[in-house]
Every structure is written in structure tokens, then in C-alpha cells.
Amino acid sequence: MPQMTMVQAIQDALRIALREDPRVVVLGEDVGKAGGVFRVTEGLQAEFGAERVTDTPLAENGIVGGAIGMALYGLRPVAEIQFVDFIYPAFDQIVSELAKMRWRSAGQYSCPVVVRAPYGGGIKGGLYHSQSPEAYFCHTAGLTVVIPSTPADAKGLLLSALAGDDPVFFLEPKRLYRTIKEEVPEGRTAVPLGSARVAREGTDCAVICYGAMVPVGLEAARAAEQRGWSVEVLDLRTLLPLDSEALLASVRKCGRVVILHEAPRTCGYGAELAALIAEQALTDLQAPVLRVTGYDTPFPYTLEHSYLPDPPRVLRAVEHVMSY
Prior knowledge:
Elements lengths: L2 E2 L1 H15 L3 E5 L15 H5 L4 E3 L4 H13 L3 E5 L10 H7 L3 H4 L9 E6 L14 H5 L5 E3 L4 H13 L4 E6 L8 E2 L13 E4 L4 E5 L3 H13 L5 E5 L2 E3 L3 H11 L2 E8 L4 H13 L8 E5 L9 H4 L3 H12 L2
Parallel strand pairs: 2-3, 2-4, 4-5, 5-7, 6-7, 10-11, 10-13, 13-14
Antiparallel strand pairs: 1-8, 6-12, 9-11
């Protein structure tokens, strides 16, 4: 199998979908001739033409609104938002139209749109290029929310998203675009949506995470091993629908839980996980559930390293629950 970065794996998935299904189209700012700001779509317009890989005006509501119209007329659009921080002009299109089309039409119409957007910190992007707004979209019935953490998962999850008939919000951790390289299966492959994976087996404490925080959790788990603690790392992969069975299995096996994400703490996705654990696995816990998160402030530029959770912060949380 070839070695790929996440950028290469996502591009490979898009190329496969464009080749195999003439209904697939890609649209967004600079996705064509320039190949996208992160070069994810590089070379696709040259291969498939400007009608299928289309540069759009700088208007996110137009990108998503146009994609909805295309989907209703039989196409399968992939709408790229250059940075997720700029998606808010399209928020109404996503939550009021895209997510609800199947319901408002009583099943007469589906809306197979994949909205791709890089998210999160780690590249010195400052407050307008580093946000993690996944919780906003997880609050929206009708959407599937996906965040991969490895190149192989990025390819498999994106191809699964493109094969479905309902809208998928696909967040890509730009911090991991080129920092991880691994073997990725050639050709069409699939990772089921709504399926978590155990990134590292453990028995003493479960670290629940997703996206760019998975490598952070894994590094903390290796450090914890030196202290004699066996830490499991669960990569959720899909936030909506959540693989609650995998989550609760890790909780019940370990009895101690640390939830890890880089989004702000208040009303972050980790709060939903903590509530679910309290409702369904309270008697299995041996310590309170702890959250290691970003802070309730705008994302800083010069203090990015202090804002983002790192392995020492996660290790301190593990130490706390282990000593409870």
C-alpha cells in the first residue's frame, strides 16, 4: 500500500469519486486552478474540467446554497469551505435547509452534499483560522459530523460520506494534513460512518478524543505507561451519530475517563460525552470524568501553545483520576 499524508488521502478519495461517478462535483474558493489553499484539490480541475471542479466567488452562503440546489437536481456536490472559521455566512443554509430537506419534503428529496472544511489550531493561524465549531453542527438533527485523525480514515470516511444520500459535515484537522504519513489502501475503500476505533488498548483509564487531539492522547498514553498506567485511547471519528456502544465499552472497561478536545470547554462536545457517561455508566466509574479542552476565550495567536491541550495537560488529568 502507498504511504500518504492526509492531504494526499483526501485528494485520492475525491479523485476516485470523480472518476467513478459523473454526478460528483467539487466547488469552492480556489479549489480549481490553485488546487485549494492547502492543495487538497490540486490537479483535479486539470483532470476533470472546470465544470466538475469549480472555482466560486468568495461567498460561503452561495457555495453551500448552490450545492444544495445541485443535490436536489441529482448531483452529488462536495462543497469546500476554505477555513471552517468562515462558514458562518452559510450557517442558515446548513442548519435550516441542508439538514432538513429530507424531513421538510417527507422523504421526497435527499440532499447528498458533503461540506468539507479544515478546522482547529496548530498552524499559527490566529483567531480567524483556528476555530473548532463542531458542537454547533452536532446540535443539528439531519447532519452527520465526521472528523478523521489519520490519512487512511480520512480517505475511507470521505468515500463513505460521498456514497450516502444525506448531508455530511466533514471537518479536516489541518494540523495533521502533512504531519502524519501512513499506509493507505489503494482504490475504493470505506470506513463506516458512526463507527469509533480504539487507537490504543488500555485497562486503567480511557482518553476519549477525535481529530487533531488523537495524537496528543496517544503521546500522553505512552507517557502514562512509564508510570505503570494502561491508558486506552478511543478515536470517535464520527461525532454525529456517536458510536455510544464503543464509548460506553471503553468507560466500563477502564472505570476512569478523560475527555479531550481543543474546542472551548463550555458547551463543547465533551460535555455531551460526560452527560452520556453519567446517564448510562455512572456506577462503572471509579473517579469523576475530567475534561481537557481549549479555553473559553477567542483562539490566541502568540499563546497558541498554551491554549491547545498538550500531552502534559492530559497526563495530569490521567494522574488525577488514577489517584482519586
